[in-house]
UniProtKB/TrEMBL annotation:
Residue span, HTH crp-type domain: 157-230
UniProt cross-references to PROSITE patterns, sorted A to Z: CNMP_BINDING_3, HTH_CRP_2
Record-linked InterPro entries: cNMP-bd_dom, Env_Response_Regulators, HTH_CRP
Protein name: Crp/Fnr family transcriptional regulator
Lineage: Bacteria, Pseudomonadati, Thermodesulfobacteriota, Desulfuromonadia, Geobacterales
Pfam family, one: cNMP_binding
Limits of the Cyclic nucleotide-binding domain: 21-141
Superkingdom to which the source organism belongs: Bacteria
Amino acid sequence: MTCPTSSRNKHESNIISSIPFFSSLTPDEVDQVEKLFRKKNYEKEQIVLYEEDTSSYMYLIYSGKVRVVKMNDEGKEQIITIHKKNDFFGEMSLLDNKTSPATIIAHEDSVIGLLHKSDFEQHLIRNDEIRRKIIELLCSRLRESWEMIKILSFNAENAQDRVLSLLDRLGELYGVRDDRGVIIDVKMTHQQMASYASVTRETMSRVLRSLEKSDVISILDSKAILLNKNFFDTRSNSKRH
């Protein structure tokens, strides 16, 4: 019978090998990289990395979710994105030695692995394939940023379209499909969603109530948001116009 430790190590190695620029490594090399990640448990709302620390680490989510935020002068969050299990980030700052303009916060209880810059470089500089795949990855990250810009600029004076664009994006990233529609599998407060879409919390709550009343979305008992069939019809009509 496989012992729990062996099973866990195999799972963690699988996560490492799923990272595009480590996917070409041999199993032994993957095991070596896995040992370099310093794993730590974080409680919900605990800071994983402050902005000034992010230039020294790449980080990988073994379990849970984290949100990447920019803090304004008043200490309020502007959510940049949310990362879930198996996601990784921070590789760009290790390449150019510049701090990512964001703070990382545990969105729920999470296990995070941190890879220090010096260890990262040992597996980067000498491997042409890894460098090539990192370039491909950075292009993908740029496209993700463009999607967020679209949300923030889409009909800037129309709050409902901003919220619909946000829900659409959250559905793409975290959606779980069932026979009712798509459930957004990430819990966010109205304030957090508002900061994501750059609207006020009051506006977010008002628009969500209106969408629920119109049967575009449903709020489930778990507080998760269900995107109903009408949601996708509404989005299709909006994109045509």
